[in-house]
Amino acid sequence: MDFKTWRHVFKLDPAKEITDEHLERICRSGTDAILIGGSDNVTLDNVLHLKKRVQGYVLPMALEVSTIDSVALGFDYYFIPTVLNSDDPRWIKGLHHEAIREYGEILDWDELVAEGYCILNADCKAAKMTGAKTDLTAADVVAYARLAEHFFRLPIFYLEYSGMFGDMKIAEKVKEVLAETRLFYGGGIDSADKARAAAATANTIVVGNIIYENIDKAIETVEAVAETAD
Fold first, then answer.
1. Taking the model in full, what pTM does it have?
2. For the chain, N or C: smaller number of CB within 10 Å?
3. What rounded mean pLDDT belongs to the chain?
4. Structure confidence by residue, pLDDT tens digits, 184-203
């Protein structure tokens, strides 16, 4: 399934424990895809272990690349974040250059998907790690969205509020200015109501932390997004 058709994605952290029972519920929930990725302690070993457990289920699987050493073969897609609201070039193009220098000759460019990240929760690990400037106005965020689509021609603009539910009014303003670039939203989706609210604006919602906190509520987010299909 092409990532451009995804409406709901579960994000699994290879550094976190999940039982076989809960993993099966996640993979058989009706979600459109599994995204594997995290901010801390992501290693090649734990990526490969989780990939092996997920690949028995018939659904697309993507790796969100956070460290070069954890890149494993065999994923349908490799999502490559570039943090647009960071002033540290390492997170905008530095790591990307290193990866291409290392793997450029063997890369399948059709499997690589660039994500223009805009991280808006100052307290989350991703913001602290990348030095993201999070005190942005709606106009600032909209400008980043336009930059992603019209200047960098990125296929995804990702509003990331990791750990908290974001401002849907900002998400709506972003969606209004995007035509070809898909709006992904992630952060604080821990209930069916929040899943509906995010899915009403974003093309794709990404659900992560609630998987490890309340599996039943995680599954409810899939059903909630399905209700918005029309």
1. 0.94
2. C
3. 93
4. 999 999 999 999 999 999 99
Q: What number of other Cβ atoms are within 10 A of residue 155's Cβ?
A: 19
Alpha carbon separation from 14 to 24, 64, 189, 217, 230 (Å, rounded): 16, 11, 19, 21, 34
∠ CA 190-194-196, rounded to 5°: 130
Query: CA 230 to CA 222: how far, in whole Å?
Result: 15
Query: What distance in Å separates the CA atoms of residue 209 and residue 109, rounded to the nearest whole number?
Result: 30
Round to whole Å and give the CA distance between 222 and 164: 19
- Can you tell me the distance from the alpha carbon of 181 to that of 94, in angstroms, rounded to the nearest whole number? 23
Distance CA 207, CA 93 (A): 26
Non-local (6+) Cβ contacts of 52 within 8 A are none
* Ramachandran area for residue 94 (φ above 0: left; ψ -120 to 50: alpha; else beta): alpha
Amino acid identity, residue 192? A
Mean pLDDT of 5-9: 97
Placement of tokens 């997004």 in the chain: 225
